[in-house]
Amino acid sequence: MDNDVQHTSLPDPEPDRPLLSGWGRRTFLRTASIGGLVAGVGVLGSASAFAAEPGTGPNRPFGKFELLLLGTQGGPPPEPDRAGISSVLVVDGRSYVIDCGRASVTQYKKSGLSFDSLEAIFLTHLHMDHLADYYNFLVLGGLPSSQKNDMIRSQIPVYGPGPAGGLPPAYGGGEVGTVNPENPTPGTRALTEYLDQAFAYSTNVFMRDNAFRDIRELRRITEIMPPASAGASALGDTAPRMRPFTVMEDDRIRVTATLVPHGPIFPAYAFRFDTDYGSITFSGDTRRSENLIELARGSDILVHEAIGDPRKFGMSDEALEHMLQSHVLVDECGPIAHQADVPHLVFSHLVEWGKPVNIGEWTRLGRKGYSGKVTVGRDLDRFAIRR
Fold first, then answer.
1. Which residues constitute the domain of residue 90?
2. Which of 186, 176, 175, 285 is nearest to 238 (CA)?
3. Which UniProt keywords apply (predicted)?
């Protein structure tokens, strides 16, 4: 590969000063049972090449193909220093959002992107930490703002998982309640329609009192289900070995997907985005996956989830094994990037246990078994790929 990648970010933290607080030990013990570029060249830019005040983000014109990390926090618990998991690919001035975690709408505007540039939304899976701002992109993005009357002006395609079709038994046994037993596993379409119902009063009043548009006309939902030949199911193998399949293609980008194993969640996807300028793959939430490695092979960047090692808290072997059905330890991601022949590994969806994410330590751990570039993502980091 001969692509150059320029990385701009917030300033580096002070030496030995961690950037963010992770889940506390008490929270972790309470929730431990929940599965919760170089391309052959050096990085052309760095934090010193573009300084930005923490929280303001690098607000400059976007190049032909850039990756922007809106939020890098993994898991539902909110953190004050990181927004929830969400990324954007900007291709020839059009914005493709991947996951919509907490505060991602605010981050989107903070980055300088416009709602008028929003081209599509992709959801890797239907865990709440990936969905917190999903409806906000539509309902708030559909309203005129004070900034040059910026708003969604055309129907936005939304690509997300279809219905799971079944619920797993409770981890550890016992009985648990079921929310909405008439439809306990809604896919992206039903989820969105339930949100329409929940906000019906507000929407109806706004349409009558302020001439706001009907939010139902602002999106076009496509539910992604794996090919039947894969033999996947919610109560069987959620991510059997399979070939990548095409999700969508337009005149700027081609999107392919594959199933990845994320505990009991089904379907859960990794996405690859190919453009004339280069390719970027998002792991979604997953444990180590041959499907992901095949999908990512030869990408310019692999954006991969990671968790810190919880064994420092004396987690039982059983609980650890349960956690690793859904996620990958940070020091086990490098071999994945190596096997996929990816020159740049970017960590996002970060989960640390009882201490802040230490950028230097995570970078070192990410280099185990991997000779490419490792970046521990921070909110509003940008990566420009130039061919």
1. 63-164+182-382
2. 285
3. Endonuclease, Hydrolase, Nuclease
